[in-house]
């Protein structure tokens, strides 16, 4: 279970909890400079996933791979009977369990040095939290009995694992016919996370042609899945009150084609 995030201090829980649950506080800070929609990544991705469900798919289970602090996992419970959040970082899974148990948790955003701003991560009462369960594990070694799903979300995960191709190739087998997969990626392609020989894109091939993550995902999934839509969704990484990074994930929504038995 080698997540780069797992090796870092518990500040990462607050950092990601700020992205998943702190938008309603953080978006008010710099309204002149930072559009509020940049704080809606989790909500926008969850809505897109729910709206993309194919009514003919009877499987009402969802899987959130690399669920982090669980924002998307809990949102999917509005539509699915069972949702599994899966992550390799113990601190994130513990935080998800706390939210499942209590419906809320105190989180902090860094203002300056040791000064922090207290916020509340809250799951709306309308969400049945008991539908959600969380598994600590490595996406490169999913439990063999995890089953199949009507929806698999792979959000901002492919760029931070050692072998993203292995996960991509696993996706069709995790879905029932007409099940959807929502893949979000900021396409970092960095050796900090992924050995260069395993990059999905971001390099020139032997013929000197640019290989992109966008195209590689299409090449792999289009064998047994249909691309429904592609959208861009921004998100904000807040490091300090006055220090932000805006990233824009490309989100591809795929539907598994009917298999002829
Ligand atoms: C950049 S965060 C994205 C989290 C969330 N899905 C989102 O979109 O905000 C990547 C997540 O993947 C998890 N992760 C990294 N490597 C993993 C692995 N090998 N198996 C399972 N989870 C992993 C990290 O712990 C982290 O929670």
Textual characterization of the structure:
By secondary structure, the chain is of the alpha/beta class. The protein has a single domain, classed as Rossmann fold (3-Layer(aba) Sandwich), CATH 3.40.50. Helices cover 26% and strands 33% of the residues. The protein contains eight helices and eleven strands. It has helices at residues 4-7, 11-21, 23-26, 41-51, 71-76, 90-102, 164-174, 213-221; strands spanning 61-65, 82-87, 104-112, 115-122, 132-136, 149-155, 175-185, 203-204, 210-211, 225-240, 243-256. The protein is globular, with a radius of gyration of 18 Å. The model is unreliable at 1-9 (pLDDT under 50). The structure holds S-adenosylmethionine. The site of S-adenosylmethionine has 18 residues, from loops.
List the helices and strands and how they pair.
Elements: H1 4-7, H2 11-21, H3 23-26, H4 41-51, E1 61-65, H5 71-76, E2 82-87, H6 90-102, E3 104-112, E4 115-122, E5 132-136, E6 149-155, H7 164-174, E7 175-185, E8 203-204, E9 210-211, H8 213-221, E10 225-240, E11 243-256
Parallel strand pairs: 1-2, 1-6, 2-5, 6-7
Antiparallel strand pairs: 3-4, 7-11, 8-9, 10-11
Bound molecules: S-adenosylmethionine.
At the third CATH level, what is the topology name? Rossmann fold
Which class do the helix and strand fractions yield? alpha/beta
Number of domains: 1
Number of strands: 11
Strand order of the largest sheet: 5-2-1-6-7-11-10
Q: What oligomerization state is this entry in?
A: single chain
SSE order: HHHHEHEHEEEEHEEEHEE
Query: How confident is the prediction overall: mean pLDDT?
Result: 93
Q: Helix count?
A: 8
């Amino acid at each position: 279970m080698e997540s780069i995030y797992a090796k870092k201090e518990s500040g990462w829980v607050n950092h990601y909890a700020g992205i998943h649950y702190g938008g309603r506080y953080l978006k008010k800070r710099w309204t002149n400079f930072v559009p509020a929609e940049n704080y809606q990544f989790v909500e926008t991705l969850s809505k897109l996933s729910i709206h993309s469900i194919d009514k003919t798919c009877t499987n009402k289970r969802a899987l959130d791979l690399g669920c982090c602090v669980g924002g998307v996992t809990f949102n999917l419970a509005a539509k699915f009977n069972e949702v599994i959040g899966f992550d390799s970082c113990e601190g994130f899974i513990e935080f998800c369990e706390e939210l499942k148990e209590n419906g809320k948790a105190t989180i902090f955003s860094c203002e300056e040095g040791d000064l922090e701003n207290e916020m509340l991560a809250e799951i709306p009462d309308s969400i049945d939290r008991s539908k959600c369960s969380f598994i600590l594990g490595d996406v490169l070694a999913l439990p063999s009995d995890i089953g199949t799903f009507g929806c698999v979300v792979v959000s901002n995960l492919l760029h931070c694992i050692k072998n993203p191709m292995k996960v991509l190739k696993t996706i069709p087998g995790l879905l029932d016919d007409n099940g959807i997969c929502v893949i979000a990626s900021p396409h970092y392609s960095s050796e900090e996370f992924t050995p260069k020989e395993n990059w999905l894109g971001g390099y020139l091939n032997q013929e000197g042609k640019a290989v992109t993550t966008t195209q590689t995902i299409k090449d792999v999934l289009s064998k047994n899945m249909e691309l429904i839509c592609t959208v861009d969704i921004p998100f904000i990484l807040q490091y300090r009150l006055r220090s932000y990074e805006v990233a824009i994930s490309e989100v591809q929504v795929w539907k598994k084609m009917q298999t002829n038995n």
